Amino acid sequence: QQRSGGGATRFKEHLAHRGNDAKDCPSVPAEVKKFFIEQLDKNKERARARARDKLLRDAAARAPHIDLDPEEEEGHGQGQFDEDAAIRTGGSHVRGSGAGGGARPLPSMFTRSQSHVPERVRDYHFGLSSAPVQQRIDTGPWTVKGRTSRELIGRAWAKACHAIGIPGQKIDDPYFKAAIMETQKQGVGIKIPSGREIDGKEIDGKYLDENVKEIEKEIEKWNMEWDECGVTLMCDSWTGPMRNSVINFLVYSGGTMYFLKSIDATDKVQDHQYLLKEIKAVVLKVGYENVVQVVTDNGSNYKKACELLVEEYPHIAWQPCLAHTINLMLKDIGKWDEHAACIKSAQDICSWLYNSNSLHSMMRQAIGGELVKWNATRFGTNYMFLESMFKKKDQFMVWLMSPEFRRTRHFNTEMGRYAFDCMTRLEWWDNVEWVINDVEPLYMFLRFADSDKIPNLSEVTMDYQNMRQTYASKFATDKARFDRIMKESHRIS
Questions:
Q1: CA gap 45, 53 in Å, rounded
Q2: Which of 203, 205, 272, 394 is most buried as measured by Cβ atoms within 10 A of its Cβ?
Q3: Are strands 317-320 and 291-296 parallel, antiparallel or unpaired?
Q4: In angstroms, rounded to a whole number, what is the distance separating the alpha carbons of residues 373 and 382?
Q5: Does 467 share its domain with 405?
Q6: 171-189: per-residue pLDDT in tens?
């Protein structure tokens, strides 16, 4: 009798009496056996469906000029699918296909993750815009006609973009490219869809509704995987330019994040009781048994609400947003006496420099640019501002000591004398540098956590350890300063 290891899949095969590499369980109850047979069949069908969808998308991308009827499309895809299914999805009862199989490559846990569109989210238009296009002989870029045509198209697009206020970089959007390619494919004489009210608002009406239905159908497919992959529920409050307050809920499951619902909370007090009620309603809508964790910011109202939620559903974990946690750490560090005094002094000087058009113009010319302004709720920007000012230290000192500045009316004002006294003393700049050194590794960690490229947990752990090591080497001779910083950083661990 051959013995071999295995994982969850082989254990299911053992209970279901399925597979060549798993011995049938002699004492499994009939209802348990039936349940796992259905689970194995369901998993196999899902894998085949995903592979079939991928094949059809790839076929559309390779040959965007061919329109297949639904029956032709099914026949075209099924033959190739049956031929390659074992290679692409792996056999259902083949050694190494289970969770404990040894034939799979190791995951790239310690490589930098890249932002990308998951394959199952890439619809027909994504495939169309990225598919290779065969050049025509008479209009290729090597011909005079081809070069002239490209110039004419470029000028027409530029006029349109500039007339209606679309930034030029937006034409690189895959959906815009797909729309142009679809227009070329349909040829001359087709009436262009209208966005005017008089014509029924086709773009923002009929076709918008069709696109919404298409997305809803895709989301319904993804929702079927909630019980298999689990769900991470994300919740965040947002205040718009009109001071309206909105709470957004997003779902992450199976490698895809998508919008679930939005709540207008403008007339509500967003205390922990209100947030608990709304979060719990979404958890029940998704299915509390499917929710693995809830991610929110680290505000006291969200923290209290999620603690009560976890008490009611112990299997759900609450995870505060990493970037928001670091931002609050920088807020607390900014309240230290030496930090608060330095930040306030620099901000007062900056406000004075920007309050006068003539003074602002002189400063910009003297230092060769602008200063990075701070944001009231992004506390890390206080240190971005200090760093931008410190980088221009030499230019500021030369300018403020120059006869040109000292002859202006700004020099003799109260704030002018204060700015001159501060920014021409090396001690003031040393204090700025000292404050920046306190938070530089932590701020770099914030930039990592708040980047567009989504890091995985192992990357976060490694970057956090790198931050601690940087502090240890930076403050090797100042243990008290190191311990003070580490006391704040323990929120992350």
A1: 12
A2: 272
A3: parallel
A4: 8
A5: yes
A6: 888 888 888 888 888 888 8
